[in-house]
Amino acid sequence: MSKVFTIAEGLENLGALRTGGQGSVYKGRRMGPIISAVKLLPTPIHTESTDDKNYRNFLNEVEKLKKVNEIPNPNVVKILNSGITESGSFPFIEMEFIDGPDLEELLKPPHEKIFTIKEVIKLADQLASALAHCHKVGVRHGDIKSNNVKFNIHSGNYVLLDFGLSVMSDEQRRSSIRHAGAIEFMAPEQNDGQMLMQTDIYSYGVIIYELLAGQVPFPLHDNGETSRNTVMMSHMETPVPDIIGLRKKNMPESWPKEKQDYELQVPLWLLKLVAKCLEKSPQGRYKNGMELQAAIVYNSIVEIRNEITPVTKAPVKQELEHIAPLSNPSNQDSLNYSGMMHLSKSLFTGLIILLVCSFGYIGYSFLHQSKPKVMPLATAQPRDSVPARDTTDNNYTEPEQKTNTDYLDKQQVADSTKRSIQEQIEKARQSVLPQQDSTTADTVKNNP
């Protein structure tokens, strides 16, 4: 392929990749087999001097772009070089070449008009990561749209491209947006030439909306001035159309009915996130990419926990219901997921009171019967004064003494009481949970 013009020394021009009002992107090749993408800005800089305002602004923005690559991010294109072309004196930014289709191509035939929920969440996370990475170093992209996000076929990642608008001056940016910008993705404040971090958040919301609904909130039907003004006014005043209604309308007929029903169940947190991104006022949106990414991470973790919790409990509950089916629904509360039996609160309390009273009575009986009888000191008589036993008196009886026979009688009473309590506990347990055979018991033991 012949050269159209020389970009810079050691950088060969291999032809245009894309052209537009905000500049053109060319395929370049450095000395050797390295392929890159070169963004040429439309406003020439004739004097490479810091006295030139345009050149000074260009250098300042390029310095910010260099910070983006100080810590590599797989979702942000690498900035390789920048400078002024040898012919034409156009400012250029050289970036790595991403091999793969952009989102605009992925939403056209033969591809479907909408993305699956899983793929939307993947892209939302990766694009938020790219914005957070840029905003941390103070770089605002300003031109986030479908054809500035590419799918890298080698890594499987979505990559944010084209930082050309970020290196323009405010005046250049305002003029470029008014006449050639992708008006469907522009935030309301961009009509006045403002470019905030919240501006990137709004454009991000338009992209996620497009992937879910199959179209942008306010489509541009032609590139005339009237149509562009209509779209911009819609961004400023018109409520955003319902995503689910458009998603249902653009649902691919080739998808099975089951998949169509599933793909209509867009997570509520994702719908709320898009709605917040598309607030008319910048103050109503996420402040920056870091806050946006934090919201996605938090909601994703909550959703995963909600999905895992019932899945892990269900098999255990099903196993317990198989082992011990409960005919009375009120008895279901007596089983938990650990496979252990629990008595109702009132029955358990009654048994505890009965046990305490029984053992208290037994203890009291032993203590009371075994307590020795002591005569008061006032009535005690000296040993010598005790009258001799009259063995001839037939009415005389030997004083009562503690014998082994009395002890055995008390032990039998205690054993009988214990057996009675154990029988009551067994009857109570049988009323809650049916008797299980030995095989079932082993199953519960091995499957807690």
TrEMBL record:
CDD domains: STKc_PknB_like. Residues 11-297 form the Protein kinase domain. Keywords: ATP-binding, Kinase, Membrane, Nucleotide-binding, Transferase, Transmembrane, Transmembrane helix. Residues 399-409, 416-429 have a biased composition (Basic and acidic residues). The chain crosses the membrane at residues 347-367. Residues 378-448 are annotated as: Disordered. PROSITE patterns: PROTEIN_KINASE_DOM (PS50011). GO terms for molecular function: ATP binding; protein serine/threonine kinase activity. Residues 432-448 have a biased composition (Polar residues). The lineage of its organism: Bacteria, Pseudomonadati, Bacteroidota, Sphingobacteriia, Sphingobacteriales. InterPro entries: Kinase-like_dom_sf, Prot_kinase_dom. This is Protein kinase. It holds the Pfam family Pkinase. The keyword Transferase applies. It comes from the Bacteria.
